[in-house]
Amino acid sequence: MFALSRRSFLKLSIGGILSGAVFSLLGGLYALRIEPRWVEVTRPRIALRRLPKALEGFTIAHLSDIHLGPYVRPQDVRMAVWMVNALKPDLIVLTGDFVYHSARYSAACAKELASLSAPCGVYAVLGNHDVWTDAGKVVRDLREAGVRVLRNEREAVEIGDARLWLLGIEDTGYTGFLGGFFSDFQAMWQKAAQALAGLLDEIPPDEPRILLVHNPDFTEMLPDEQIDLALCGHTHGGQVRLPFIGAPVLPSCFGQKYAAGLVSNEHTLVYVNRGLGLIYPPIRFNCRPEITLIQLKSFLTPSVDLTNPVLPL
Ligand SMILES: [Fe+2]
Questions:
Q1: Would residue 1 count as lying in a domain?
Q2: What 3-state class would DSSP assign to 75?
Q3: What confidence score (pLDDT) does residue 181 get?
Q4: Spacing, Cα 42 to ligand 1 middle (Å)
Q5: In a domain, 202, yes or no
Q6: What are the b/e assignments for 33-52, b being 16+ CB within 10 Å?
Q7: Which of 220, 256, 253, 254 is nearest to 238 (CA)?
């Protein structure tokens, strides 16, 4: 039988420890320095039931959770703005958390966002980090930069003879962090749900509606089949995603459900952007920052599987 000498055993042990240390160091450097700035452009094609012909192939660039502050620099936002403009979207939407805890970052963030350009405009809603600080200042800075901030408001985007309704619900600041109770969430978001009911009023039943709301948990409170697609952020994909486990920490009342990507709940379709920036701890692993370029398709498009609204590329 093969036996190790004491010296060989020591050499192997030291080698193992050193390899482990180097591997951990490289992994840490990757999660801290590389992945947080390695932006991925995702391109889901999403089929909506209520899509007029004029909107077939319409593109929406979706950015979320920029979090300008100690971990995200103006030049990071500048690069993302350049990437978004290069995609030539028809419309750009921003679903909140422009700053990290303080409105003192909002002017610098808005200055970069002023360069965003799309023929149908740039729309935004605020996230929890924005309303936790000075929401009025964040809104003023964004509006001065040409961003249309929807504060429990709606606007119709006209494309040819068709209309696409954008309904923007502002974050209430209450987040189901670390698995809060949804009953508490519902109580804190009740006024937002009432505001949305008012916004839906008098929209012609055959015209498509897209909801912009930072926190995807709110989509569990939507009325059935009134919203065609909800665009959200907030969860950052968890920032760290482990094989078989997913994200160890996720600010949602629904576990991993709204971590990232397209979710079909019983009321609507929800797309959750993983965010551009990050919060403490400032690391990303297996969860790159995201710019989403959504292409709208009709269910009438040939070869669309009605049970699967995400179309193959
Ligand atoms: Fe966020």
A1: no
A2: helix
A3: 86
A4: 19
A5: yes
A6: eebbbeeeebebbbbbebbb
A7: 256
**Number of structural domains found in the chain:** 1
Q: Residue 14's CB: how many other CB atoms inside 10 A?
A: 10
* d(C-alpha 267, C-alpha 108), whole Å: 37
How many angstroms does the Cα of residue 2 sit away from the middle of ligand 1? 56
Position 307 scores a pLDDT of 54
Model confidence pLDDT, tens digit, residues 55-89 = 999 999 999 999 999 999 999 999 999 999 999 99
- Across the chain, mean pLDDT equals 91
Rounded distance from Cα 85 to ligand 1 centre (Å): 22
Structure tokens given for 153:
């408001």
**Residue 97 alpha carbon to ligand 1 centre in Å:** 5
From ligand 1's centre to the CA of 291, what distance in Å? 14
Which helix (H) or strand (E) segment holds residue 131: the answer is helix 128-132
H helix or E strand, kind and range, residue 187? helix 182-188
CATH of the domain at 282: 3.60.21.10
Q: Tell how far the Cα of 208 is from the centroid of ligand 1, in angstroms.
A: 27
Sign of CA pseudo-dihedral 74, 80, 84, 86: positive
Domain range enclosing 190: 38-311
